[in-house]
Design goal:
membrane, Phage_holin_4_2, single chain, two-stranded antiparallel ribbon, 4 helices, 5% strand, 128 residues
Length: 128
């Protein structure tokens, strides 16, 4: 249960960071702060549900694109999160592509690096 909570927290933090970075570096990516938390939660849930679903569909029908599953699920989660009013707004297809790449890179790095940091602290605590 603790692992699940830590993974959920890491997902929420990395999604928030990804959305913030995208809004800072992409002029046509806008965050409305009133709906920012909703966008984070919706994106995280959509990503968690869609990732395995898209993976299974691709595995059955288009195994050549398995490597891009993270990008596809990030794009679809971003699309779903943008449908909720008062959260995020994205203008232009170039911004959609760059936002997808930016958020995917940040969430991928975050979900890879943050557990190492938590585990490192846990190991230090166990040795003490």
């Amino acid at each position: 249960m603790i692992r699940f909570l830590i993974r959920t927290l890491i997902s929420l933090v990395t999604v928030a960071l990804g959305l913030l970075v995208a809004s800072w570096i992409l002029p046509d990516f806008h965050i409305e702060w009133g709906g920012f938390l909703i966008a984070i939660v919706v994106f995280t849930i959509a990503q968690a549900v869609l990732g395995p679903f898209i993976f299974n569909v691709a595995r059955q029908h288009a195994s050549a694109i398995l490597g891009g599953i993270g990008l596809v699920s990030t794009f679809v989660a971003l699309l779903i999160a943008s449908l909720f009013p008062g959260g995020i707004t994205i203008d232009g297809w170039v911004t959609w592509v760059l936002a997808t790449l930016t958020i995917w890179i940040i969430t991928a790095l975050g979900t890879w690096l943050l557990p190492l940091i938590f585990l490192k602290e846990k190991v230090k605590g166990a040795k003490a």
